[in-house]
């Protein structure tokens, strides 16, 4: 399950969209997040509000910022 916040989430660029398999299960996307076409977000991630992703994110992390970076590892 992917949880997406109420406000806009920009995925891709110039009307190109990200394939659904690029965002894995159990991901929480906050509002105003921008994800470029080449980025993959792995399982069990929390993506902070207003983040801008240019690089892929591994599993079990909280990530955010402009550009986005790993803020904290999340233990299961």
TrEMBL record:
The lineage of its organism: Bacteria, Pseudomonadati, Bacteroidota, Flavobacteriia, Flavobacteriales. It comes from Mesonia ostreae. This is Uncharacterized protein. It comes from the Bacteria.
């Amino acid at each position: 399950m992917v949880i997406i916040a109420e406000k806009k989430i920009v995925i891709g660029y110039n009307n190109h969209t990200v394939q659904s398999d690029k965002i894995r299960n159990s991901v929480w996307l906050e509002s105003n997040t921008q994800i470029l076409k080449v980025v993959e977000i792995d399982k069990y991630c929390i993506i902070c509000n207003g983040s801008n992703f240019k690089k892929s994110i591994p599993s079990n992390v909280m990530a955010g910022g402009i550009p986005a970076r790993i803020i904290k590892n999340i233990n299961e």
